[in-house]
Amino acid sequence: MIETLLIKFYKQKLSNYALVYKHVLINIIIAVIIIFLSVLIPAPYIIHNNQEFLLISIFFFISLIVAVMSLSLLINLPAMNFTRRFYKIKLRSSEWELFRLYLLKEYLVETKFIDAENKNTKENKETIEMIISLFQQKLENRQKNKPFSILGSYFNTTIVFLIPIWTAFNNQVYFKEVTLNEAIHNIGTIFWVVLLLFVLFCMIKIYKIQYKFLYPDYKLQEIIYMLSQLQIIHNNDKFSQKHIPQDQKDKIKTMVKDYNYKKTRNNQKERNTTSFLKRYSYFKWK
Question: What's in the keyword line of the UniProt record (predicted)?
Fold first, then answer.
């Protein structure tokens, strides 16, 4: 039950998506559509006309630029400005991580999992350790017999997937099924597609846009990490006074109380279209 409540709080109030990227959800959808169209539109022209490798490279390079600019202008920049204006903190900074950490602490205090600062220090530490153990056990159970776990995390094993492509390339050239230029054209096309997907994945990872299908266990790992940090700073008044301004503490308390209040009301949602657009889009770049 405890881990279920914490996971729910993480999803709805503590994750980067809940705090920031949920408010630029429409931006994300628009960026995905633009990137998809930038790849889809020139694809039939290239396939049916069998264009030269140089022209294909130009098309994919343009698609790459469109992808980077879309992620930057429609997602990253608005998200950073939203965080600065709404939370008065820079996104992905040490202050931002501390803000989230104290948000977690306030929730644990508000729900009576732990006591306030300087009260029952030993019991608080033991409680946090028990919660960490619960999450570690849950994470271990999820990772047992996980699909593709046999491949592990070693990069060399991914070469296995490239062998059929290289074999097909050699066979086509050796048996003269296609000319050398056509074979280079085919493998070059595959290379650019893989490169484009790799760059998009790296951009998503850099911007920390947390999607469940990419990081199924990410929330559990981050909760464990945050709880481990909380063990160190929970009863440290001097640290709190130095790094967390009073206005941020007040905002954190308001956010937790608002979360608990909405939970008691069954999380009633506004159905007004204008409110929806206002909550899930942000297009300010300054």
Answer: Membrane, Transmembrane, Transmembrane helix
